């Protein structure tokens, strides 16, 4: 059983996709019953919450009271790999500021005695309104369900999915005035022999919220404290007496707990949690077993979850109400500060709860007798630790040094403010992020302390006191500005800089053709944040490619007033779970009434069938791209066993060449790109005209990923508002593309006998002689240091020229180069070999063109 659980965890990081709407959705007023009343209704649009994760549709079932609203999907396809209705999809509280839904996908996994390798999910067959509620009455919905195949399991294991012979009855109950949905699952054995059933609830929730698992604290810290080693180091098995799980953000908290006492084991794979609701429950023929659990909606802290669990389990431990205050250095109360409470026991401690302060800076928690360590955080303030004992006669209070104020102004050479990225690197506390992991306050900044994207380039930022190196950055075409600041509490400082455009690529629009948002289970990025980052980094085209899910960012771009700066295209990273590879397809149709907004179903299909389905999924031409083809478990060329040196393919029956592009560069790694270049060159030498593209595969916007690297496509202008899905594909088909992770370059070619008849990248040169004349122009900002220019003919470097970039100066290189060629047909491209960046990045810069082809 343990091995099966681990395997399910390994599958988890690819398992499921969540719905995401724009974070700018304002909360709408939902119908709220009177006190002592619960209601169960079939939803209209007015009954459904909005928010980043809202998934409800008219016709779904709404259980509500004066405290909360819960939405159970009706008998319809639902987004994610749970696929079916009958499950909880939305939950909100009714107080102001708490009516926006953040609930990630939850879905069932069920297995019999054969184990989780044969797990299936549940599909509803009938819905029954047991009680519509009313004054003093609960609202009760009963859903009859049967087991159904779960492609994320059977496609990964490649084991046939067979019916389990189980009928499930899921009963949802909401009492008046309660924030908690009570759930009971009765599993009936319809076979003629005894069976053992395991029921798991999978929950994807880390994006936009922090998960806490007492007694460990934040779930990320729990991985290092309470986790066993997982298969392939992907699975974390958290062992301990875990009373509940709580996902928390600034406004809401979601709590899950069993009625059986505690979770003995919680598994986590990346951002997917697996909660065992029933483990090996034995049912005789025609007999049944039952699991009961509760799901509660709190007010942005775990204290409300604790209190609700104690109430429902009828536990009244001896506890004392402790109240305290958090204020700033000037004595003013701090609202929405987070206070983390740990009970001490010798050298050890256990996480008890996290509470938030109200408008008067007050917090409250019910605590058992003992000694406590507390840590208080507030945005951009210096956190402070304090200690107290319970019972106490002294009111716990803490003062947080207030932020510094940084006046920011980033302009062009005409002194006009422009969007920019602001990168903070803490110099005085290099371990500050690791120290905050226990509390979930470390931020999702990767190597940086903080990253901010300014759409105006002219604003004042609050900054936590400290010593920083701060960089203003607007992509690769511009110079950067970098200064060090020692910011004390309450200081006011100014950072004004002109960022010169020293490496423009006229006529080309930069784009990212592989990126993710909140709609992917492994991305945390809200729509506005993602859009702002690409504008700040001077990227013109975003092709959104969430995992098996279609997102249309255009309405959000329009609402933000940025259509003149950014074009967005609906795409899809098709993500099979059977290790054959990942594939991008764009444009794709956007249909909110279809599963995952119109994404294709990849299961039971080979790569060629997937490509064909993607091409049919848009009324127009479609680009199909092989993503990260050398990534373990996700690389198509690894799967088919391609050796680009010999041309050997170990699985030739699984090779389809019906693709248009190869993701040569995925992220900033030059070494990884050079490996995939050999695959690209192999297909070019076979005569297949395939595009070489560089992308970010950006999942985490605040790790400074957008636009690093980028692919330029020639349009003859630099106006993103003129880009459409169809004309983007048309320009890509022409092949005039340049990939850059720092420098930029252009290339034209001619027969030396006809030097005025020049062709562009992607064109075919009709050659009469035995040489090609190339005109090359290369540019790089002064902080992007480059070494040489390589000319590559049919995959071999035939010439390398030093670029001699002046020290501390940008590069502006022009040259006419003549290279001999011998074959009847072939191709040529140029590549810049980089040396280093003078700031921010450890990888060397690089750029390369797509080929110019020739034939005699």
Kindly list the characteristics that best describe this protein.
13-stranded antiparallel sheet, eleven-stranded mixed sheet, mainly beta, disordered N terminus, 856 residues
Describe it.
The N terminus is likely disordered. The protein is built from 11 helices and 53 strands. By secondary structure, the chain is mainly beta. Strand 37 and strand 38 form a beta hairpin.
Briefly say what this structure is:
With 856 residues, the protein is mainly β. Helix content is 11%, strand content 42%.
> Which regions have little confidence, pLDDT < 50, spanning 5+ residues?
1-25, 227-233
Mean pLDDT: 92
By secondary-structure content and strand pairing, the structural class works out as mainly beta
Strand order of the largest sheet: 4-3-2-1-6-7-8-9-19-16-15-11-12
How far apart, in Å, are the first and last alpha carbons?
Answer: 66 Å
Number of helices: 11
- Helical residue percent? 10-25%
Instruction: State which percent range the strand residues make up.
Output: 35-45%
Q: What is the chains' assembly state?
A: single chain
Radius of gyration: 29 Å
How many beta strands in the DSSP annotation?
53
User: Could you give a short account of the major beta sheet?
Assistant: 13 strands, antiparallel
Shape verdict: globular
């Amino acid at each position: 059983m343990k091995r099966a659980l681990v395997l399910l965890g390994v599958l988890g990081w690819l398992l499921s996709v969540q719905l995401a709407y724009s974070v700018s959705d304002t909360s709408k007023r939902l119908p709220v019953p009177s006190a002592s009343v619960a209601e169960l209704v079939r939803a209209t649009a007015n009954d459904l919450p909005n928010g980043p994760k809202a998934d409800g549709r008219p016709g779904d079932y709404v259980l509500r009271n004066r405290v909360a609203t819960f939405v159970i999907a009706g008998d319809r396809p639902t987004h994610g790999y749970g696929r079916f209705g009958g499950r909880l999809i939305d939950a909100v509280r009714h107080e102001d500021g708490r009516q926006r839904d953040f609930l990630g996908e939850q879905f069932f996994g069920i297995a019999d005695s054969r184990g989780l390798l044969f797990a299936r999910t549940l599909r509803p067959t009938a819905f029954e309104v047991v009680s519509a509620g009313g004054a003093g009455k609960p609202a009760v919905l009963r859903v009859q369900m049967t087991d159904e195949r779960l492609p994320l399991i059977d496609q990964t294991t490649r084991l046939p999915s067979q019916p389990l012979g189980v009928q499930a009855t899921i009963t949802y109950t909401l009492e008046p005035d309660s924030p908690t949905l009570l759930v009971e699952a009765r599993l009936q054995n319809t076979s003629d022999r005894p069976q053992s059933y395991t029921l798991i609830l999978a929950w994807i929730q880390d994006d936009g919220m922090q998960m806490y698992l007492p007694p460990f604290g934040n779930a990320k810290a729990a991985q290092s404290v309470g986790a066993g080693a997982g298969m392939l180091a992907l699975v974390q098995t958290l062992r301990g007496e875990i009373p509940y799980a709580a996902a928390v953000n600034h406004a809401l908290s979601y709590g899950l707990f069993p009625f059986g006492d505690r979770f003995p084991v919680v598994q986590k794979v990346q951002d997917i949690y697996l909660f065992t609701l029933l483990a090996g429950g034995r049912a005789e023929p025609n007999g049944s077993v039952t699991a009961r659990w509760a799901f509660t909606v709190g007010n942005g802290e775990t204290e409300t979850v604790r209190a609700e669990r104690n109430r429902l389990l009828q536990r009244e431990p001896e506890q004392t109400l402790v109240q305290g205050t958090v204020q700033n250095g000037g004595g003013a109360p701090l609202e929405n500060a987070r206070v983390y409470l740990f009970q001490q026991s010798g050298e050890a401690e256990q996480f008890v709860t996290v509470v938030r302060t109200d408008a008067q800076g007050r917090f409250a928690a019910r605590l058992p007798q003992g000694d406590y360590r507390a840590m208080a955080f507030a945005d951009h303030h210096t956190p402070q630790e304090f200690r107290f004992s319970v019972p106490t006669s002294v009111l716990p209070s803490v003062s947080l040094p207030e932020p510094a104020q940084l006046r920011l102004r980033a302009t062009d050479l005409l002194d006009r403010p422009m969007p920019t990225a602001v990168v903070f690197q803490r110099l005085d506390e290099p371990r500050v992020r690791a120290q905050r992991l226990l509390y979930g306050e470390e931020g999702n900044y990767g190597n940086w302390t903080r990253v901010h994207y300014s759409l105006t380039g002219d604003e004042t930022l609050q900054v936590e006191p400290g010593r920083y190196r701060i960089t203003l950055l607007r992509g690769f075409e511009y110079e950067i500005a970098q200064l060090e600041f020692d910011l004390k509490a309450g200081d006011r400082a100014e950072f004004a800089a002109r960022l010169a455009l020293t490496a423009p690529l006229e006529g080309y629009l930069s784009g990212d053709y592989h990126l993710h948002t909140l709609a992917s289970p492994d991305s945390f990025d809200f729509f506005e944040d993602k859009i702002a980052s690409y504008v700040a980094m001077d990227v013109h085209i975003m092709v959104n490619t969430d995992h098996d899910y279609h997102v249309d960012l255009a309405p959000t771009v329009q609402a933000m007033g940025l259509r003149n700066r950014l074009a967005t295209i609906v795409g899809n990273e098709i993500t099979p779970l059977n290790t054959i590879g990942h594939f991008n397809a764009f444009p794709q149709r956007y249909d909110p009434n279809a599963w995952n907004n119109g994404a294709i179903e990849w299961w039971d299909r080979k790569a060629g069938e997937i490509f064909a389905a993607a091409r049919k999924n848009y009324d127009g031409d479609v680009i199909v791209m092989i993503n990260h083809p050398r990534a373990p478990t996700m690389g198509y060329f690894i799967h088919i066993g391609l050796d680009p040196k010999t041309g050997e393919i170990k699985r030739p029956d699984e090779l389809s060449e019906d693709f248009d592009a190869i993701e040569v560069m995925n992220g900033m790694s030059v070494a990884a790109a050079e490996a995939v270049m050999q695959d690209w060159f192999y297909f070019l030498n076979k005569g297949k005209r395939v595009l070489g593209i560089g992308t970010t595969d950006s999942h985490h916007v605040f790790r400074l990923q957008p636009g690093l690297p980028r692919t330029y496509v020639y349009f003859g202008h630099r106006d993103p508002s003129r880009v459409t899905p169809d004309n983007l594909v048309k320009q890509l088909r022409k092949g005039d593309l340049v990939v850059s992770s720092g420098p930029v370059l252009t290339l034209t070619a001619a027969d030396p006998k006809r030097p005025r008849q020049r062709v562009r990248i992607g064109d075919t040169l009709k050659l009469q002689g035995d040489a090609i004349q190339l005109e090359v122009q290369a540019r790089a900002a002064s902080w992007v240091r480059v070494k040489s220019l390589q000319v590559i003919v049919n995959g071999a470097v035939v010439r390398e020229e030093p670029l001699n970039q002046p020290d501390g100066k940008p590069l502006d290189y022009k040259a006419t180069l003549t290279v001999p060629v011998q074959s009847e047909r072939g191709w040529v491209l140029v590549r810049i070999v980089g040396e280093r960046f003078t700031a921010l990045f450890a990888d060397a810069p690089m750029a390369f063109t797509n080929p110019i082809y020739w034939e005699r």
